[in-house]
Amino acid sequence: xxxRAHRYPTQFPIKLSSLSGLIECQVIDVNxxxxxxxxxxxxxxxxxxxxxxxxxxxxxxxxxxxxxRAGITFRPHLTELQVDMLRYRRDKANYLGHRAGGxxxxxxx
Length: 109
Known about the structure:
Layout: E1 8-18, E2 21-30, E3 34-38, E4 48-53, E5 56-66, E6 69-74, H1 80-86, H2 92-95
Antiparallel strand pairs: 1-2, 2-3, 3-6, 4-5, 5-6
């Protein structure tokens, strides 16, 4: 049995670009290696997809599709900051490095 790192629940809207076109989806759980998304009925297993987070292009491969849900693996893995953004963790002040309030997820650290 292969160990998979903990995925953090979220509800983050994204627009995936794939061979099928532009698909509006929602990330429902995420970690640096991959994510589970919903609203992805048009995707097929093995398809390469891209989306943007923090003005950087993230590339992924669709690993499985079941109904409107799909699992994707990021290639290369996302940075900690990108994962935090997908989790709605970082506000603008935290992103700029200031010590400001924000949501804390103690399980992350």
